[in-house]
Write a structure and sequence with these properties.
It is a single chain. With 225 residues, this protein is an alpha+beta fold. The chain has a domain at 10-161. The chain has helices at 53-56, 127-145, 150-204; strands at 10-15, 21-29, 34-39, 44-50, 64-69, 86-87, 90-93, 95-99, 114-115, 123-124. The strands form 2 sheets. It has a 6-stranded antiparallel sheet with strand order 1-2-3-4-5-8. A 4-stranded antiparallel sheet has the order 6-7-9-10. Strand 6 and strand 7 form a beta hairpin. It is elongated and about 95 Å long. The protein starts with 9 loop residues before the first strand and ends in a 21-residue tail after the last helix. The relative contact order is 0.12.
């Protein structure tokens, strides 16, 4: 497979639907599977990646995204990030999840935007900041998803999460096998008790056979480890 990875930073000019012009330096984090847009006008970085939590929710939408206001951290517990951007004089904080298909360039309500405060509890950003930020994230996300390297970056994201997802699936398999064994035990017990009742009926009716439920077509095979 031919690699589409750029050999260095990319310098782009982006314009929102409302005409706001941005000059960004794009770098790709192949370990995290994320695209970092360092926007000169915002004096900070907006990072766009895929939302890994949708996999845990069995969501099949490959356009479930995550934006980090700043340079990303592999820890899911961080809410303050280095090089956070400033929009309309408001320093942004945290992460936000959204679906690319539901983005609207003229409406900010699809995106949660929070401002950094002196305390650990960040507040919602003012409406003007939220509206401008949503327009910026919309433009950056559209640019990212249409790049030739987007599919390879997505694979890097999935590769990073594959070990943890594998462990989750193995745990789920073990739990389901335990549940299946318990259900099989209950089923066998019910079949034995039904056979005993059928024998009693046949004894009373002089040998007239009772129609039993059909047996399973084949015994279930254990799931591969």
């Amino acid at each position: 497979m031919t690699s589409t990875r750029p050999t260095g930073p990319q310098y782009v000019t982006l314009v929102t639907e409302g005409g706001y012009r941005m000059h960004a330096t794009v770098t790709l984090d192949w370990e995290l599977g994320a695209a970092l847009y360092r926007v000169a006008e915002l004096c900070g970085t907006i990072t766009v990646a895929w939302d890994s939590s949708d996999y845990d929710r069995n969501c099949c939408d490959r356009d479930a995204m995550e934006v980090t206001f700043g340079r990303p951290s592999p820890s899911p517990f961080h809410q303050r990030f280095e090089d956070a951007p400033t929009v309309y004089g408001v320093l942004l904080a945290g992460r936000a999840n959204f679906h690319a298909a539901r983005m609207k360039p003229t409406s900010p309500w699809w995106l949660s935007v929070r401002r950094a405060q002196g305390t650990s509890d960040d507040a919602e950003a003012p409406d003007g900041t939220r509206r401008r930020t949503a327009a910026i994230v919309h433009t950056i996300t559209q640019h990212m998803l249409t790049r030739p390297w987007a599919a390879e970056l997505r694979r890097a994201h999935d590769h990073r999460h594959a070990p943890a997802r594998y462990r989750q699936h193995q745990q789920a398999i073990r739990e389901l096998e335990e549940e299946a064994a318990q259900l099989q035990e209950k089923l066998n017990r019910e079949r034995e008790r039904a056979a005993a009742q059928a024998a009693m009926i046949e004894a009373v009716t002089g040998g007239a056979r009772v129609t039993a439920l059909p047996a399973p077509v084949a015994k279930a095979q254990p799931l591969a480890a």
